[in-house]
Structures are given as structure tokens and as C-alpha cells.
DNA sequence: TTTTGAGTTGTTCGA
DNA sequence: GTCGAACAACTCAAA
């Protein structure tokens, strides 16, 4: 009491009930596990976001994903401001700037939802150590997926490496112990009052120009609106339309899930409720829920086996002798391979930061099989360009397309970009939209323009011939398998000798 | 321990 | 034009 101001006494008395929530890939207030845990523990709080260069990636703030992320942070700030809570935005390395804010605010507890990648986990551990050394309590939760990598296991306790049994186990687990999303958002009651020197170094988000960049509207409100619109609209036909890039038949929730503007739990919960309310939606929505479970599967694969970020899941295919033809890689990136369906996809990606999933498979197959270019290069390009780029799903998808992953596409199953185009874009609306040079071409030759009567001005001839490229890929993959078998046989012989 | 059934999304060939 | 078979064995997961 002596000499202390009224405020200071209050500060000390309440600091045990003060906490900070560190927002990362959980940019929402509803159904946020760690935030709700903090609300159970403290009276007053401050939300913080750290603009970490590592989070933005190599492209800085100008990539579609970074812009979308910053837009989500911006909207989160608005939503918090409406509740009278100022979002603190710090810039720099979390292990450095977070403890400073903790000190200045008098918080005794810091909460966050754990990261899923090896990189994020290392960063989290650095921060945890610094805070705990300073006597701060750290509360972490798993929140990014419905079930964690340890929760869905085979009878022997091993992680699943095949999707279908994983999915079955996932749903059994849900039956036993469903994880419905929280009905309402739960945040601490009060805000930590602004104290001396607490004002954070405020970073400018630069979150303008979303419309110009053709990005989806960022933020939690937009995510929930989109989910509702999907469930009451395209979901009914999802099982029929989802492979048609010329139809807007998917949920387009991937960017929101990526940054946690909506939780996977909420998607599953709302999907199941929608089926309950209208059983006619079952066919469409259960197919869509399957995609959420795929996301869970790949997240679990990455956490259980982080090596997949650099290596083939099936080791024998690390022996494939990949092509290093740079002009092929550039043509692929820029959407001028001479195969309209492939080029349409790559241009959609370049212009919007998003690509329809069916087309992702086709262009990935084209790069790894027709051009015989290492899947890691395609994975990196996608990761840099995609607004929804997620390390786990991106890696899983690429390894599947390259036939190197869990549940691989059999290596002899090589997508034919012409017949795939004819099948999934029958009138050519998708190609015409993204490859305007071909806009007036007859639908009968649209997916194989070299068959047209005359050359198309400004559109390239195919950079590889389908049949020959296919045979080259088959040989390269067969050789890798043969090499692996030879290695194995040699290893066995060695062991036998000893 | 052995057996059994199954495995996201296709393509090509020849009858 | 349509249809079924081959593609190439292999591994996983559970009974």
C-alpha cells in the first residue's frame, strides 16, 4: 500500500487473472479451443497476433496467401474491437516480442493452439521455454483438426497409412466421442486496461485490395456465411458436381480452414446437422465430409512422419531420375504447355491463387508424369501460389499424384489431359474462361487444339506428345522400382553373408 | 499366425 | 461406339 498508487495495487491484485491469447492459424472467436480454455482461467485478457516473417513465407506480404492471412487478421481485429478488445499486432520473432508484451501487460497466462508442422512446433517450443522460464503459465490446445495424430490409430496402435481404414476409424471415433463445435464463442470477460508502456509496436497490415486480387473475402464472418451458403445450396449436388471445374460446386472453404477462420469441428458439426434436418442432403454432404477427413488424414500423416516434407513416402520412388528441363517447368508454371485443361488450371492458379481440385490432380500428374519433373518442385510452386496452401494437404496431394505417397495413385494410371478435359469440362467453359486464345474454338477440338483446321494464333503446340511422354514416365517409374528391388536383394544378400 | 479383402479420383487395348 | 480386362504386384489392417 505504502507509496503505491491505487492503480498499481489493483494491477498486482488482478494480474493472476490476466492472460494473453496468441492468435496464429486460429483466426476466429467461435469454437476456439485455447481461447475458451483461457476464458476459463482468467478474468481479463489481451489478444495478440505476431507478424512473423516465418509465417508469411518467402513471398513476403504480396502473395495471395499472405494477403488473405492479413485480411483475416484485420477482420479479427474488427470483431474484437466491436467487443471493446484491442488486438495487439506485434512484428518480429515471437520468442522475443511476446515476452515483452506479457511483461508490460502483467499477464500470468499465455494461451495458443499448437502448430502442426515441425517448423511451427519448434517455434512454439522456443516461446514456451522463454515464457515458462519467466514464470508464466502456458496453456496450449490442439485445435487445427478434429482429431489429433495420436487419436486415430490401428488396432496395434500404429498410425494409419491407408485412407479408407483411417476414415472408418475416424467415424467410429466420432460415434464414440463426437466433437461438436461449441455453440457460442467464449472469451474472457474483461480487457486488460491499457497500462504504462504497453502500446505494442503496431504493424501495418496492408490488407487492402482484396477484390482486385480476386481473393475470397477474408475473415470469420465470411467463412461462416460461406459454409451456410454451401450447405443450403451446392452441397445437395456436391457428389455430382464436385469434379466439374466449370461449375461452382465446391465449398471453397479451404483458405478459411487453412487459417482457422472456421474450425474443422464446426464444418463437420454443421454438415451432420444439415443431413439430420434434410436426409436428401446425405449423398452430397457425406462426400464433402470425406474431404474434411482427408484433410485430417494428411495432417496426421505429416505429424506422424515429418520426413514426407522432403522425401517420398514410398522410398523406392526417391530413385526416380527426374527431368531437369527448365523450359518445361516454366511452361507448366505459366500455363503454356499446349494442353488446354492444364494451362487453364495453371492460369487460374496464377491469377486467383486458387485452382479447382480436379484440375490440381491433372496438372500435378502432368508435371510429374508427362514432364517427369520432381513432385517437390510442383509442391513448392503450389505452396507459394495457393491461397489455401497447407503443408500437409499440399504434400499429401502431390505425393498422391506423383504415385509416391500414402495410398498412391498406381504409377501406371496417368491422367490423359485431353480425355480428362472432355470428361469434366465438356462444353469447354472452364478452358475458355482461363485460356482466352481458345475462346472461339469448336468444342470438339477445344481440348486438343492441334486437331483444329488451322493453328491458333498465340497458343503453343503441345510441349510433349502424350503417348511418348506416358511411356517415358512408365519406364522411369518401373526403373526406380527395379532399382529399389535390386537394392533390397543386395541388402538381403549382405545380411545373409554375415 | 495366417488369411482375407481391399485399395479416391484412370487409361488403353482389343474384341 | 461400347465393354471388359489388363495394367503389377504389394501392402495394409483386421478377423
What does this structure look like?
The chain has 498 residues and is of the alpha/beta class. It has three domains: 139 residues, HUPs (Rossmann fold), CATH 3.40.50.620; 124 residues, Serine Threonine Protein Phosphatase 5, Tetratricopeptide repeat, CATH 1.25.40.80; 167 residues, DNA Cyclobutane Dipyrimidine Photolyase, subunit A, domain 3 (Orthogonal Bundle), CATH 1.10.579.10. The chain contains 20 helices and six strands. β1, α2 and β2 form a beta-alpha-beta unit. The longest helix has 32 residues. The protein is globular and about 75 Å long. 43% of the residues are buried. The N terminus is likely disordered. The chain binds a DNA duplex (15 and 15 nucleotides) through α7, α15 and α20.
Summarize the structure.
By secondary structure, the chain is of the alpha/beta class.
Helix content: 40-55%
Total domain modules: 3
Question: How would you state the average pLDDT, rounded?
Answer: 90
> Helix count, per DSSP?
20
List the helices and strands and how they pair.
Layout: H1 6-15, E1 18-23, H2 33-41, E2 44-51, H3 53-56, H4 64-82, E3 88-91, H5 94-105, E4 109-113, H6 118-133, E5 137-141, H7 163-176, E6 190-191, H8 220-231, H9 238-241, H10 254-258, H11 264-277, H12 282-304, H13 326-334, H14 340-352, H15 357-370, H16 375-385, H17 391-401, H18 417-424, H19 429-434, H20 466-497
Parallel strand pairs: 1-2, 1-4, 2-3, 2-6, 4-5
Helix pairs in contact: 5-6, 7-12, 11-12, 12-17, 14-15, 16-17
The chain binds a DNA duplex (15 and 15 nucleotides) through residues 154-156, 158, 160-165, 243, 290, 294, 357-358, 361, 400, 407, 409-416, 419-420, 470, 474, 478, 481.
Amino acid at each position: 500500500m505504502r507509496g503505491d498508487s491505487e492503480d498499481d495495487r489493483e494491477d498486482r491484485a488482478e494480474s493472476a487473472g490476466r492472460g494473453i491469447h496468441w492468435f496464429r492459424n486460429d483466426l476466429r472467436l467461435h469454437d476456439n479451443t485455447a481461447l475458451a480454455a483461457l476464458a476459463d482461467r482468467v478474468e481479463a485478457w489481451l489478444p495478440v497476433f505476431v507478424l512473423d516473417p516465418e509465417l508469411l513465407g518467402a513471398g513476403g506480404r504480396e502473395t495471395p496467401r499472405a494477403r488473405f492471412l492479413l485480411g483475416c487478421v484485420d477482420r479479427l481485429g474488427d470483431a474484437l474491437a466491436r467487443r471493446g478488445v484491442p488486438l495487439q499486432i506485434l512484428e518480429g520473432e515471437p520468442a522475443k516480442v511476446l515476452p515483452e508484451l506479457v511483461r508490460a501487460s502483467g499477464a500470468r497466462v499465455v494461451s495458443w493452439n499448437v502448430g502442426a508442422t515441425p517448423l511451427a512446433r519448434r517455434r512454439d517450443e522456443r516461446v514456451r521455454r522463454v515464457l515458462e522460464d519467466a514464470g508464466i503459465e502456458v496453456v496450449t490446445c490442439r485445435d487445427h483438426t478434429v482429431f489429433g495424430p495420436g487419436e486415430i490409430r490401428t488396432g496395434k496402435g500404429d498410425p494409419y497409412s491407408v485412407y479408407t481404414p483411417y476414415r472408418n476409424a475416424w467415424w467410429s471415433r466420432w460415434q464414440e466421442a463426437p466433437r461438436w463445435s461449441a455453440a457460442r464463442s467464449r472469451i474472457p470477460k474483461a480487457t486488460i486496461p491499457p497500462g504504462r508502456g504497453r502500446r505494442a509496436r503496431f504493424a501495418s497490415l496492408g490488407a487492402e485490395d482484396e477484390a482486385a486480387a480476386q481473393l475470397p473475402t477474408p475473415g470469420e464472418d465470411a467463412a461462416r456465411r460461406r459454409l451456410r451458403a454451401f450447405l443450403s445450396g451446392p452441397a445437395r449436388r456436391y457428389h455430382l458436381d464436385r469434379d466439374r471445374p466449370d461449375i461452382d460446386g465446391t465449398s471453397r472453404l479451404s483458405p478459411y480452414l487453412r487459417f482457422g477462420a472456421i474450425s474443422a469441428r464446426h464444418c463437420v458439426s454443421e454438415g451432420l446437422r444439415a443431413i439430420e434436418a434434410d436426409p436428401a442432403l446425405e449423398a452430397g454432404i457425406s462426400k464433402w465430409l470425406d474431404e474434411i477427413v482427408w484433410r485430417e488424414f494428411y495432417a496426421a500423416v505429416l505429424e506422424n512422419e515429418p520426413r514426407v516434407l522432403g522425401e517420398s513416402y514410398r522410398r523406392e520412388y526417391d530413385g526416380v531420375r527426374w527431368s531437369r528441363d527448365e523450359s518445361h517447368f516454366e511452361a507448366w508454371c505459366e500455363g503454356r504447355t499446349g494442353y488446354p485443361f492444364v494451362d487453364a488450371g495453371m492460369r487460374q492458379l496464377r491469377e486467383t491463387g486458387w485452382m479447382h481440385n480436379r484440375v490440381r490432380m491433372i496438372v500435378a500428374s502432368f508435371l510429374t508424369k508427362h514432364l517427369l519433373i520432381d513432385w517437390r518442385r510442383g509442391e513448392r510452386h503450389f505452396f507459394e501460389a495457393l491461397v489455401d496452401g497447407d503443408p500437409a494437404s499440399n504434400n499429401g496431394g502431390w505425393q498422391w499424384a506423383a504415385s509416391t505417397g500414402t495410398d498412391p495413385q498406381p504409377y501406371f494410371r496417368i491422367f490423359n489431359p485431353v480425355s480428362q478435359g472432355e470428361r469434366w469440362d465438356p462444353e469447354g467453359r472452364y478452358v475458355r474462361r482461363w485460356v482466352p486464345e481458345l475462346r472461339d474454338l469448336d468444342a470438339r477440338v477445344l481440348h486438343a487444339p492441334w486437331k483444329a483446321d488451322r493453328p491458333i494464333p498465340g497458343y503453343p503446340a503441345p510441349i510433349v506428345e502424350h503417348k511418348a511422354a506416358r511411356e517415358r514416365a512408365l519406364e522411369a517409374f518401373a526403373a526406380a522400382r527395379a532399382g529399389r528391388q535390386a537394392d533390397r536383394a543386395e541388402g538381403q544378400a549382405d545380411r545373409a553373408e554375415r
